[in-house]
Amino acid sequence: MLRTLAVTGVLALLCACSVTPTASSAPPSELVVFAAASLKDTYSALGRTFEAGHPGVKVRFSFDGSSILEEQLAQGAPADVFAAADRATMDKALAASLVVKPVLFATNTLTLIVPKGNPAGVTGLDASLHGKKLVVCAAGVPCGSATAKLAGLLGVTLAPVSEETKVTDVRAKVETGQADAGVVYVTDAKAAGSTVDTIPIRDADRVRNDYLLGPVAGSRHSDLANAFVAWVTGPEGRTTLAAAGFVTP
Amino acid sequence: MIRPPLPRWLAVPAVVATAFLAVPLLAMVVRVPWSWFLALLTTTSAVDAFWLSLRTCTASTLLCLVLGLPLAMVLARSHGRLATVGRVLATLPMVLPPVVAGLALLVALGRRAWLGSRLSLLGVDLAFTTGAVVVAQTFVAMPYLVVAVEGALRVAQDDFDVVAATLGASPTTVLWRVTLPLTAPAIASGAALAFARALGEFGATLTFAGSLQGTTRTLPLEVYLIRESDTDAALALSVVLVAVAVVLVAVTAALGRSWGTRR
Amino acid sequence: MSAIVVAASVAGRGAVLDLSVPAGSVTAVVGPNGAGKTSLLHLVAGLLAPTDGEVRVGDEILSNPRRVVPTHLRRVALLTQRSALFPHLSVLDNVAFAPQAAGARREAARERAMTELRGVGCEALAGRAAHQLSGGQAQRVAIARALAGDPLVVLLDEPTAGLDVASAAELRTVLAERLRGRTSLLVTHEALDLWTIADRVAVVEGGRVVETGVTDELLARPTSPFLAHLSGITLLTGVGRDGELEIAGGLRIQGLSDAVQPLHDARPGLAGIPPEAVSLHLEPPGGSPRNVLPAVVKVLEPRGPVVRVRLDVAGQQVAADVTSRSVARLGLAPGTAVWAVVKAVQVRLYGR
Questions:
Q1: In this complex, how many residue pairs, one in chain B and one in chain C, have their CB atoms less than 8 Å apart?
Q2: Mean predicted lDDT score pLDDT of chain B
């Protein structure tokens, strides 16, 4: 009985471990990419085309908030490529020598979205928002600091009813009609499709959110990692990113 | 009486289980930067989140009592298919993933929803208000109270309600003077559990109520937000949540014991 | 005080119960387990609805198949084997419960409770919690609590069961005193309860009331097998005379007078004779202070190693357990005339 238990325990541990991608146990052709949550759709598509162009290679993604991924890297999480949604996070990773030579591969700008048909009659990031339910990102996260910066440039004081941690939560609240308007990235507005109407914000391009990626220091597949970076910054990547609403350099 | 012992090997998985449950919590306590723990906790946003959590959890626990107690009493006396359905409904939010609970509330009480739009015609606009937080917390916490109280009512062997009726007490008098006092320990422990669940409520609040400092951003939402930028502060707040949970669970256990000895 | 009239059937329990309890009388209900005794109490308490017939207390119909007056509106007190004192209330507040439920102010209710507690000799326990009482004390407090509500009818379901002999005897005294003159139904398995508390007896068997009557008469001439089997002890009824019990035919029974319910001269009394204390002889023996009673064998019942011999003594039944060898040696058969001999120390005399 003791042995059965021991075996069960070991099996359980093995199963548990195989769920998280580990560089040591992964086959040589597996590439682990840590990417900001806002890159989920584009990177998933790029991963598929990358795999098609590199037979035998499997790309696995972990999508989460940039700073959370950075923290995981600092704790020794095994990854080959890191793509962050803001420069500050990438600078932090670079300072800690977690990544090598990160490059700018896309920028994103903010826009205003309203529920389909704009029931609250919002006209922009202006006085029409007075008394309306505006949802933005919290100041502590990149899209929130970008929103605050833009509002400052425009000289508008925002009175949001909610400051979300994730830009996708802002989008969801506009999509469901809970909120009258939300400030999100152009890419989120595009992804929301026809469930929302987009109202461009004046001078939005003055506040750009930079997306950077680079190979993780000490990656055991640095060749593949470099190849993936090239794939994202190359024609294939630029087309996919542009289609999603990103501006590519 | 000396009871026949358990098989010795049972100790091994038992120790593993204890470690499994304790290690993450201990790790968190170790990781917290104790030297500036207080400074982390006394930021305006943390203090706001703390008071908001305290206010909303108190309100939702009271709401659980006002609505959940009658439900528990009715269920404890009910038999048949309808009662089974009621019992399932009353416990369902307990096992629902929190985000699902939030979505359910959203499609029922959201501004676009049938009920929600009618409520807003009456001037009740829940969206992004503290009230929405209370609603979300009550929805997920009430089952804990209902289950605890219904269980206690069912195991009450002595027919005190029958005795009280033969002494001329009307059903209402029996409720106030016999049933409620006798179930008080179970009610208190159920309320403590409900409070704990409300305190930990995250998914439904996030989905349904939003996140605004002082209005809807409760402690768990604050942890979720500052984790994006400041892991230390998130850990410090988490330790506070763990400490409160420990106290609540201890209170529940103590009430359970006193309940046991009283019978 | 109001009479109870039950003429009701409960289909699910196979009970067809027909019983009248005269106003102010204490009627004991006896019978085998599952005979319908508790159903009878529950019909009166409104805890069981009749499928046919009705239950009346006084002039009011409390139950019929169409309408059952809720228990709390009946003024019917119920006392069970478990005293069921409220654990969250003090003894005083337990007893004050009924007056308060009836709308009395707290102080008035407590005053009334104190009076009832004095009536059962428990005034010193007023401040205690329910779990600090012994079984006998708890039952006495439960009586006080039941009576504090001025019930029209008192129902008792084996109140002395589960108590030790001394507490049961004390409780009997209290019940006899406090129930006197109150319309009561007392379910019991104890022969002594019948004698000391009840003035009438109803025998329930198979869901029917098979016999009713005045306690003394029924105990003296038990016609129902259940009554005869009620207790292992033979009970002889008579009247106290010079510390002895005189039964019909001028026969005197000597014995030890019970400490709690002593026998009084010129008052009705009861002699309890255990069957194993009775020996049978064909000739009257002499010697030590013994009761020697002329008897006639009525029935022989083999019971394992012994034979229970049912005797007629001056028109009352006495049981004797003797070995089968003695039966053979004495040549016992129905109709045999014998002398039943019982040592005085083995006979207990009760008064009331």
A1: 65
A2: 88
Query: For B74-88, what is the mean pLDDT?
Result: 89
CB within 8 Å of chain C, chain B residues 173-232 = 173-174, 177-178, 181-182, 184
Contacts B205 to A, Cβ<8 Å: none
Per the CB < 8 A criterion, the answer to whether C93 and C129 are in contact is no
| Residues A202-245 pLDDT 10s | 888 899 889 999 999 988 888 899 999 999 999 989 999 999 99
Interchain CB distance below 8 Å, B106 and A162: no
Question: Is residue A20 included in any domain, yes or no?
Answer: no
Q: Which residues in chain B have their CB less than 8 angstroms from residue A161's CB?
A: 127-128, 210, 212, 215
Residues A223 and A101 in one domain: yes
A224 and A146 both lie in a single domain? no
- With CA atoms as reference, the chain A residue closest to B99 would be A169
* Same domain assignment for residues A103 and A164: no
**How far is B238 from B247, CA to CA, in rounded Å?**
14
Closest by CA position to B226, among listed B45, B29, B28: B45
SS3 state of residue C165 = helix
Provide the 3-class DSSP secondary structure of residue A158.
coil
What is the span of the domain harbouring residue A154? 110-206
Domains and CATH numbers, chain C: 4-224 (3.40.50.300), 234-351 (2.40.50.100)
**CATH code at A70?**
3.40.190.10
Cα gap C75→C94, rounded to integer Å: 17
For residue A137, the one-letter residue type is C
Number of domains in chain A: 2
Q: Is B258 on the interface with C (CB under 8 A)?
A: no
Q: Enumerate the domain spans of chain B.
A: 36-262
What's the CATH number for B36-262?
1.10.3720.10
Q: Are residues A126 and A168 in the same domain?
A: yes
- Residue A189 in any domain: the answer is yes
Q: Distances from the Cα of B83 to the Cαs of B68, B107, C154, in angstroms?
A: 15, 26, 36
Q: Tell me: the pLDDT tens digits for B35-73?
A: 888 888 888 888 999 999 999 999 999 999 999 999 999
Residue of A nearest to B11 (CA): A2
Closest by CA position to C17, among listed C25, C26, C1, C48: C48
Does A116 share its domain with A201? yes
Compute the CA torsion angle C138, C142, C144, C148 (nearest 10 deg).
150
What letter does residue C287 receive in the DSSP assignment? S
> How do beta strands C67-68 and A58-64 pair?
unpaired
Q: In what order do the strands lie in the sheet with C290-303?
A: C278-281, C337-343, C290-303, C306-313, C316-323
Type and span of the H or E element at A162: strand A162-164
Instruction: Mark yes or no for CB contact A2/B12 under 8 Å.
Output: yes
pLDDT at C250: 87
Alpha-carbon distance values, B146 to B119, B190, C205, C262 (Å)? 26, 7, 45, 57
CA C137 to chain centre: 19
Tell whether A126 and A186 lie within a shared domain. Answer: yes
pLDDT band at B123; cut points 50, 70, 90 = confident
Answer yes or no: do A123 and A196 share one domain.
yes
Q: A177 and A166 in one domain?
A: yes
